[in-house]
Design a protein that fits this description.
- The complex is a heterodimer of chains A (116) and B (113).
- Chain A contains no helices and eleven strands.
- In chain A, the strands form two sheets. In chain A, strands 2, 4, 5, 6, 9, 10 and 11 form a seven-stranded mixed beta sheet that branches. Chain A has a four-stranded antiparallel beta sheet with strand order 1-3-8-7, with no helix packed on it.
- The termini of chain A are far apart.
- Chain B is mainly β and 113 residues long.
- Chain B is 0% helix and 56% strand.
- Chain B is built from no helices and eleven strands.
- In chain B, strands 2, 4, 5, 9, 10 and 11 form a six-stranded mixed beta sheet that branches. A five-stranded antiparallel beta sheet of chain B has the order 1-3-8-7-6, with no helix packed on it.
- The chains are: A mainly beta (116), B mainly beta (113).
- At the A-B interface, strand 4, strand 5 and strand 10 of A face strand 4, strand 5 and strand 10 of B.
Amino acid sequence: NAGVMQNPRHLVRRRGQEARLRCSPMKGHSHVYWYRQLPEEGLKFMVYLQKENIIDESGMPKERFSAEFPKEGPSILRIQQVVRGDSAAYFCASSPWDRGLNQPQHFGDGTRLSIL
Amino acid sequence: QQPVQSPQAVILREGEDAVINCSSSKALYSVHWYRQKHGEAPVFLMILLKGGEQKGHEKISASFNEKKQQSSLYLTASQLSYSGTYFCGTEDLSNFGNEKLTFGTGTRLTIIP
């Protein structure tokens, strides 16, 4: 299966710890997007990255949150000093480079983050 | 400001039709529709670009009225597998080229036998 791969599927952290969420885009996709979803709510945009570049991080909190998409390896969403309010499902999506064709974003299965 | 979807929830019997609306306060370039089942990833259904086109996907089709900044998703002869929460994702003209999607409030569709 060459879909968007996220790991771990479930992550439990205590308050104050760090959480690292990984996303490998679909083969051939160079654009990665991170979204957060609270229970019974919609998807909230966090950050949009291309290889080695952050294109738009307007939806990401300025403190404690960071994202990267290195030249080699998966995209990482990092949350430092987690708090209870960080508990949510975090979804990653990817799309190919050819913007002219208005390609859809394909989602991974998400990481459910629980903060104790 | 996220798009507003209506209705918030709807229950249908198998075989009935449904319309889900997505309304934005911003000028739109495109509307993307997704379906998400509980605990799963959103699944892409279709994209509509400005120009008022209508597209179809099996018994699911959609329209986009750019002047009204609205899109509607039509489900005909609904099947049990159509159950889930439907989200529209909009791409604003002001953000064109950014590819950022702003997702709507969601519509929960339940199909009963």
